[in-house]
Amino acid sequence: MQTQTYERINILIPKETAKKLRRAIPRGQRSKVVTEAIEERLSQLSHKDMYKELLRIRKKGPKVSLEEVVQWIREDRQSH
Known about the structure:
Blueprint: H1 15-24, H2 30-60, H3 66-78
């Protein structure tokens, strides 16, 4: 098993958020919960960037009708 290394950082959060965190998450689990929330948010940001890039590529490509797409899928399925 790989050992995780940690780093202490200082962040500021609103008092109300801190109160909710203390009430909802037991001591000793808070860093884990905050880390998971940060990782999830970072993952979402990465997905947003990918989505934006796909939209950019889509705009540059030729316009294709739904019927054409359906036909291509049918042809592809029949070829297997």
